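Morning, I've got a small favour to ask if you have a moment. It would help a lot if you went through both lines with me. Thanks so much in advance, here it is.

***
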Amino acid sequence: MRELNSRKIAIVGCGFVGAASAFALMESGLFSEMVLIDSDMSKAEGEALDISHGLPFAKPMQIYAGDYDDVADASLIIVTAGAGQKPGETRLDLVKKNVEIFKSIIPQIAEKNKDAIMLIVANPVDILTYTAAKLSGYPENRVFGSGTVLDTARLKYLLGEHLNVDSRSVHAFIIGEHGDSEIVAWSSANVSGIPISKFCEMRGHYEHEEAMKSIAENVKNSAYEIIERKKATYYGIAMSVKRICEAIVRDEKSILPVSCIQHGAYGVENIALSLPAIVGKDGIATQVPIQLSEQEAEDLRKSAETLKSIVDDIQI
């Protein structure tokens, strides 16, 4: 392996998500060097300059626009590049446009740097994570997607609101596709170790089926609702990117529902989707088996089939 700069990050794509992620990471103090890369160099330069002007209020850092040569010594490469999701468009509608973009981007990254961790954030994230893994030749533990980290945060937020409790005390995962076939793993959901249904009753909620269905729908439709109102989502995913980067840079070995290629878990094979995994300085250390009901496991397999049918339609 070449010598990488553990304090250097590259962000490929300076749209709403890339720029918001760059801003969140500047504020985090995790890195001392950040290069922004975009097909529109002046956009990358503008974002770098704008974010740099906040440095007197943060930690010393070098932020600049660059090209693919600049990823050579980055320890972490975040790919947000791709066409954005338009109102009324599903994440999967984006697939063909963004796979073509990845066919141009990923080989250029891999040519310059084979040893970094590559985090895929562009949508549809599961298909593009699978695409990036195949095109880059990176070990699978070092190329993974933001997956359902944001969906899981949305779930925790809504459950916290529903139960009038700190969302950080809620332990629950969204698994499967980051999209319409995602699944709430209700079987393993709890609030500080207390099963979710029991905690609901403690807080005076008894209509479990109705509430679970409503919250799951709200999580699934959150992005569509935001896009309808403000044309794009970027703050929530930027905070999710920061959280994943923290786990990597600090070698936290945090359990996060990131998207990676599966090899047999719950009967899912050779497709990228989200399941909880231990994330640290080498990327994904291992996946964490969580309790799923038979129906949840079946729904996970259906989610995988939805994604597989799309992969079969594209040439990677």
